[in-house]
């Protein structure tokens, strides 16, 4: 995907983007200080000098994020851990310490598990940065973060990566999808066909569901 297309997607869905004075890859993005966001993001910087310590840490945070989503999940515990991980990543982004495609990919996952619209906007922005650099898997997290952003704005999702269930974690179904999105577009973003996505809803409910 061309850089202009990525930036256009960001602006379309609400962030502010500017090329910095330090070169073509220097990017400054600002996000709203929205109520309820923990943490608030405000400003992130990408395109600085590589920071091996920060890169290693954000990969550890991604691994812990994924570990917390295996097996039986205690969301009262995981929610607090998610918030702490977001705060760590936010600090590194504000300081411009995350610079590589792998950094942005990991950081996008951490913010994909946020608690407000602005977090999903940040995740989408970071996924776009990873995608610009050609990182494998980045198109999928770009699609998923855009869908989660749209869903939390009360709009139909674009690709079809998001599901909703009832309070008991049963009766899962695909959140409404924009009918204009084609399977060929989904394929470009590493997303299965709409029929495959719809079929997956039946697999999400645990055996204990009626």
Keywords, please?
5 strands, 210 residues, three-stranded antiparallel beta sheet, globular, mainly alpha
**N to C succession of SSEs:** HEEEHHHHHEEHH
- Specify the biggest β-sheet: 3 strands, antiparallel
**Cα end-to-end separation:** 44 Å
How many helix segments? 8
- The best one-word shape is globular
Ranges where pLDDT stays below 50 over 5 or more residues in a row are 1-14, 17-24
What structural class is derived from the secondary structure elements? Answer: mainly alpha
Description:
With 210 residues, this protein is mainly α. It has 8 helices and 5 strands; from the N terminus they run αβββαααααββαα. It has a 3-stranded antiparallel beta sheet with strand order 1-2-3. A hairpin with a 7-residue loop joins strand 1 and strand 2. Helix 1 runs antiparallel to helix 5.
Fold topology:
Blueprint: H1 3-12, E1 16-19, E2 27-30, E3 43-46, H2 52-67, H3 75-94, H4 101-112, H5 117-132, H6 138-152, E4 163-164, E5 173-174, H7 183-188, H8 194-204
Antiparallel strand pairs: 1-2, 2-3, 4-5
Helix pairs in contact: 1-5, 2-3, 2-4, 4-5, 4-6, 5-6
């Amino acid at each position: 995907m061309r850089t202009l297309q990525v930036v256009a997607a960001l602006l379309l869905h609400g962030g502010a983007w500017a090329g910095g004075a330090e070169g073509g890859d220097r990017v400054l993005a600002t996000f709203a200080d929205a109520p309820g966001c923990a943490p608030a993001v405000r400003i992130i910087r990408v395109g600085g000098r590589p920071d091996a310590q920060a890169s290693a840490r954000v990969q550890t945070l991604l691994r812990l994020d994924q570990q917390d989503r295996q097996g039986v999940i205690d969301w009262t515990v995981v929610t607090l851990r998610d918030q702490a991980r977001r705060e760590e990543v936010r600090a590194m982004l504000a300081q411009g310490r995350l610079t590589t495609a792998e950094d942005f990919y990991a950081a996008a996952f951490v913010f994909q598990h946020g608690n407000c619209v602005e977090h999903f906007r940040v995740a989408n922005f970071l996924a776009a940065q990873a995608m610009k650099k050609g990182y494998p898997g980045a198109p999928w997290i770009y699609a998923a973060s855009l869908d989660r952003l749209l869903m939390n704005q009360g709009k139909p999702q674009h690709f079809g990566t998001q599901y909703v269930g009832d309070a008991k974690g049963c009766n899962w179904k695909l959140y409404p999808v924009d009918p204009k999105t084609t399977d060929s577009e989904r394929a470009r973003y590493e997303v299965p066909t709409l029929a495959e996505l719809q079929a997956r809803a039946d697999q999400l409910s645990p055996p204990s569901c009626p």
